[in-house]
Amino acid sequence: LQRLGRSMFSKQWYQRRVRGMPVAAKQSAVTHAKQFPITRQSIDESGLTQEDPKTLVNGSNVVVSCGESTTAAETGERKALNYPQEVVEKDGSVTVKFSNGTTKHISADGRLVTMTFFNGDTKKTYQDGRVVYQFLKDGITQTQRPDGSETTLFPTGQEETKKPDGSIHIKYPDNSTKITYSNGEEKSVYNDGTVVTVDRTGQKLILLPNGQREVHTASFKRREYPDGTTKTVFNDGRQETVHSNGRIRKKDAKGNLVSDVVLNKAGGVVVDYLNRRAA
């Protein structure tokens, strides 16, 4: 060792080699060094050479694969670390550190791989094929499943799932739901029991909890009551109310009553309330 001076087999080289290790591994390595002093024979037997300082085994049987390189080791200059750095933990899991601050953790059983990115985001890959990505800044969580579906959970509690068939299922914090189908149709169910459907032409049907229905088209909006009465409002402002007893009331765009009659089943006028006469 005296002849080698500041070469890789010297005490100074070993101290520099330990400096770059994690604290726990460093302490264990120092203890190991005191118990088993480095000699040329021990270096040769371990298989470590000046050109291949890849792996160290500390006193706790924790393997640290740093993938590091040396710069002018013969002159005693400080070593430069290359990334990624790999650490095998006591529980058998593996942690890999990258130069940009990103880390990768592989569980001992290999069923979970966790990537923690430099900005705090995390990506978890499970053995069953699920991939869960969490955006730290926005508080959003995205889950991808093997069947091709993808679920996004927002901080508000809103949950949105995209299905392989192209449909989108949304669940709101109040438990209301909305489904948008790939053909353009929609269906919404509100927490009060109201159901709204929209077909491909844009026509909307609203089913109310009290049994009433509303039909919205491009030319009118109509409400239908359980007793058969209907009220229709046209786009130009005209209104028409048809009662279950056959009475029909019509108003113009300005709201003026223009017709108020009772028709029989054949369509004939039975009573004309506007003109105060009976047929």
How are the SSEs ordered, and which strands pair?
Elements: H1 11-19, H2 23-35, H3 40-46, E1 55-57, E2 63-65, E3 85-88, E4 94-97, E5 103-106, E6 112-116, E7 122-126, E8 131-135, E9 140-144, E10 150-153, E11 159-162, E12 168-171, E13 177-180, E14 186-189, E15 195-198, E16 204-207, E17 213-216, E18 220-224, E19 230-234, E20 239-242, E21 247-251, E22 257-263, E23 269-272, E24 277-278
Antiparallel strand pairs: 1-2, 2-3, 3-4, 4-5, 5-6, 6-7, 7-8, 8-9, 9-10, 10-11, 11-12, 12-13, 13-14, 14-15, 15-16, 16-17, 17-18, 18-19, 19-20, 20-21, 21-22, 22-23, 23-24
What does this structure look like?
Helix content is 10%, strand content 37%. The longest helix is centred in the N-terminal third of the chain and has 13 residues. By secondary structure, it is mainly β. It contains 3 helices and 24 strands.
